[in-house]
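R.M. (postdoc): so does anyone remember the format we settled on? I'll just put the structure tokens first.
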């Protein structure tokens, strides 16, 4: 598989995309006005404790307090030695994790006004606050530093037990006591010297973070995650990537400076893009990103996917569409489902979709077809660097996929909720608006007034009223014994209208469709 990275910058936005076989599979975006929290470490102050949901809210100096759940609190970092018996009582001995995290009730660990060190593990999404943990970690290119533990872990991307054991033994020999490390996927093939250099770098970063955390009091930031340029190189750029194209000289120099220290063997793959045609236009990326926020995604065969959001989950529906096939119906359905699998997994990565995803595949009768679809999904999601898992197909053709969600998805980043439909994607039809106008005329006492009533409406509703030689207008006039003066107003939404009984009256505005539908 051929991989490329494109890094493009303007004064309003910096974007990086990962291409696999010329297709966009991942997008990273950073804007000057949008402050990134993920990965940052703060000295925070406990504002409130909620025992009923075993959570606390922490002030970290941002506009909104962050959310801390009891499962993300490590009592060993917070309690005195005299409370070791309490830790022992609640510790889950059956779990194998980087450290033995005790399930102590949060009200017995924290108190309001207390200052603690927390790290953001989930960006604010929608109306939800950012989520934090007291289990701090600092990511490097090859390793992740885990303070206050001797834990050594290896990326789950390798199942080679011999390699895992060798890497653990190597890290144990070169790391200092009391600090743990996790070998990242990109670090599975590096030398001992590269590990040693990064261990020193990460320990120095952690030392500076601790020193800053001990200075003064009150909420403040003590460690900031890398900016997008360095972060993309750290997390995406590996031996598998054929080339990295950069269209801004300052970014080009930053990339080379980082690689000189971290991976000098990759320097020759970094190239400066100088053509007049914008980099993303050259690779037809802009059109791909525009399509990535649409509800419908077409497949080459003529089939398509429908991607719909709900509060609790995301639903993906697979349809044959224009694909009529050449053989039997069962074969057409199977091939459409098979073609949909890589596209579904690509859309999950590109749109950065997370949480619970329910995929509704077209019903298949043959057991071997169902088994092949399950195997293909499992094989494809393994390429996703974000933690992803899936179930088998249910008897109704449904498959559940869970994907870790740590930041707002692409749709939330690039779009706003429509003010007319409030995110429903639908508005009242002209016929429905007409019936609401009818009720409003009766409600406001226009009936029997014999006066002129001015009606301001959207042009689409006006066209409906004027159909069949103003049949609907005459009908409303007869029923309410008044004369209607229709005024088209393009500034109104299709499901809005305004009624004025005479020139001296103030306008009365009908409820918008989004308000009515919300009821």
């Amino acid at each position: 598989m051929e991989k490329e990275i494109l890094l493009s910058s303007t004064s309003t936005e910096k974007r990086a995309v990962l291409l696999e076989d010329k297709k966009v599979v991942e997008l990273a975006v950073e804007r000057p006005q949008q402050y990134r929290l993920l990965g940052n470490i703060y000295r925070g102050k406990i504002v409130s404790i909620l025992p009923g949901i075993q959570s606390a809210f922490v002030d970290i100096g941002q506009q909104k307090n962050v959310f801390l759940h009891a499962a993300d609190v490590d009592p060993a970092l917070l309690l005195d030695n005299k409370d070791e018996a309490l830790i022992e009582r609640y510790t889950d001995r059956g779990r194998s994790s980087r450290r033995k995290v005790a399930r102590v009730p949060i009200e017995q660990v924290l108190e309001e006004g207390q200052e603690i060190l927390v790290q953001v593990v989930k960006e604010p999404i929608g109306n939800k606050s950012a989520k934090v943990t007291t289990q701090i970690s600092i990511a490097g290119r090859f390793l992740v530093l885990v303070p206050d533990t001797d834990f050594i872990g290896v990326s789950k991307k390798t199942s080679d037990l011999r390699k895992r054991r060798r890497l653990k033994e190597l890290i144990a020999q070169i790391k200092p006591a009391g600090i743990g490390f996790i070998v990242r996927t990109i670090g599975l093939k590096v030398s001992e010297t590269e590990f040693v250099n990064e261990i020193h770098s990460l320990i120095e970063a952690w030392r500076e973070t601790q020193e800053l955390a001990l200075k003064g009091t009150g909420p403040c930031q003590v460690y900031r995650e890398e900016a997008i340029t360095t972060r993309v190189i750290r997390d995406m750029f590996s031996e598998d990537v054929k080339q990295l194209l950069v269209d801004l000289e300052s970014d080009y120099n930053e990339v080379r400076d980082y690689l000189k220290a971290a991976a000098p063997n990759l320097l020759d793959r970094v190239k400066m893009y100088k053509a007049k045609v914008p980099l993303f236009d050259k690779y037809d990326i802009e059109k791909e990103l525009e399509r990535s926020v649409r509800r419908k995604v077409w497949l080459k065969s003529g089939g398509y996917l429908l991607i719909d959001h709900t509060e609790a989950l995301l639903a993906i529906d697979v349809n044959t569409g224009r694909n009529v096939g050449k053989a039997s119906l069962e074969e057409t359905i199977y091939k459409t489902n098979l073609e949909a699998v890589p596209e579904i997994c690509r859309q999950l990565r590109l749109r950065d979709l997370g949480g619970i995803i329910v995929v509704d595949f077209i019903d298949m009768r043959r057991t071997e077809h169902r088994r092949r679809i399950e195997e293909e999904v499992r094989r494809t999601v393994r390429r996703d660097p974000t933690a992803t898992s899936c179930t088998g197909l249910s008897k109704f053709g449904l498959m559940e996929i869970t994907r870790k969600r740590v930041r707002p998805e692409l749709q939330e980043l690039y779009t706003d909720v429509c003010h007319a439909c409030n995110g429903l994607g639908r508005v009242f039809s002209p016929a429905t608006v007409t019936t609401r106008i009818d009720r409003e005329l009766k409600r406001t006492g226009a009936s029997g007034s014999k006066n002129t009533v001015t009606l301001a409406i959207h042009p689409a509703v006006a066209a409906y009223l004027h159909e069949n030689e103003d049949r609907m207008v005459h009908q409303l006039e007869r029923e309410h014994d008044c004369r209607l003066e229709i005024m088209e107003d393009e500034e109104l939404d299709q499901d809005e209208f305004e009624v004025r009984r005479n020139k001296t009256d103030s306008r009365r505005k009908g409820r918008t469709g989004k308000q009515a539908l919300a009821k």
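R.M.: ...and that's the designed sequence above, right after the tokens. Also worth knowing: Residues 430-518 form a domain with the Hypothetical Protein Ychn; Chain: A, fold (CATH 3.40.1260.20). The mean pLDDT is 86.
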